[in-house]
């Protein structure tokens, strides 16, 4: 019983990380139709921003305070990177999907190379708050505390994004711009600016995912964002391209399948199980590759 509880909670925590990573990807594709392969570079930028910020703060500050400041820095850096990329690289290429893919793939490779050139290819250890590194006893299982943090952050992010899209004027403009861009522009609304905000939001979510994943892994590295991006894409496709709710459900399923397969089958089988799950979903529901909203 305790083993099952541990697997379920750790699987939920891993799924929460996948959702945080995939939410920005889903948001950008669902509302803008842009398949952003540079999303991993956004996550890497956020992770390094938090690492540098935490290292620059006075060492006598509590680690949790330094982590919170690092998270703010990661979110800001992710948003700024997303904004710049949209304005400079993506905006001239709307409705030109092949060129978008080529540009974002190139940016992803350039981001990894830049990080390696500046900080080296070796992982750099990150400081973790004592409580997050500890465990809590629940039903006989010693559960890692950091998993509760990931689940909480993912839940707040999910509710916040849904509220933004359905309860605010910005969300209304975004959804209207997706449905009929010409009509929205005729009403005097700057759709370009609105889409820039969406890309910045996606970048901010990526930055948040980057810093939380570095806490999960215990280190930052140039290839970290790319590794997480693979699972983020799998989650987005299984959940339905652009569906935020579907992405949340798929993230939980992927996290649980990965943890259960690794434990009950063999280490490493979890990754294979996730890929097989993706293949099964595409065979049974090929419409997963079509865009949707919320």
From TrEMBL:
Where it sits in the cell: the answer is: Cell membrane
Kindly state which keywords UniProt assigns to this record, in alphabetical order.
Answer: Amino-acid transport, Cell membrane, Membrane, Transmembrane, Transmembrane helix, Transport
Q: Which InterPro entries match?
A: ABC_transp_permease (IPR001851), BCAA_transport_permease (IPR052157)
Q: Which CDD domains match?
A: TM_PBP1_LivH_like
The cross-references to PANTHER family, in alphabetical order and at most eight, read: ABC TRANSPORTER ATP-BINDING PROTEIN, BRANCHED-CHAIN AMINO ACID TRANSPORT SYSTEM PERMEASE PROTEIN LIVH
Q: Which family does it belong to?
A: Belongs to the binding-protein-dependent transport system permease family. LivHM subfamily.
**Name of the protein described by the UniProt record:** Branched-chain amino acid ABC transporter permease
Q: Which organism is it from?
A: Terrabacter carboxydivorans
